[in-house]
TrEMBL record:
It comes from the Bacteria. This is Uncharacterized protein. InterPro entries: CdAMP_rec (IPR010375), N-reg_PII-like_a/b (IPR011322), N-reg_PII/ATP_PRibTrfase_C (IPR015867). SUPFAM superfamilies: GlnB-like (SSF54913). Pfam families: CdAMP_rec.
Amino acid sequence: MKLVIAIVQDKDANRLRSEFVKAGIGATRLSTTGGFLKSGNTTYMIGIEDKRVQEVLDLIHETSRTRQQFMTPPVNIDAQMESTSGYPVEVQVGGATVFVLPIEQFHQF
Ligand code: 2BA
């Protein structure tokens, strides 16, 4: 058994949830925040039998889009109190960031 942790964009999260429900795949949805953009994203935790891991990865791959997003770098103020204002820069986000971990034990009491 494996634990799949998938970080997806909020815009793709509902479609992915529908695909999990359709396929009978149990998933827990967490509201998370990216450390770089500091904007919201969605993390799914999916406990799944080894033989269905590829199916989960395929669903994530099919539903997650790559998007361009603008972010404004933080303003730096140096010792002379001069600030360098940050211009917005474009970054590419997604499709999805996925980790697959082994599960030692799985219990549902
Ligand atoms: P964020 O940390 O907000 O990052 C959003 C996007 O900003 C990233 O998209 C990447 O294109 C860019 N980015 C992130 N850190 C950067 C840096 N130091 N310099 C330049 N550009 C940078 P993705 O790679 O698609 O990541 C989307 C989200 O997935 C991330 O949101 C974060 O929440 C998560 N993530 C990505 N890599 C991770 C990792 N190694 N461990 C844990 N979470 C991760």
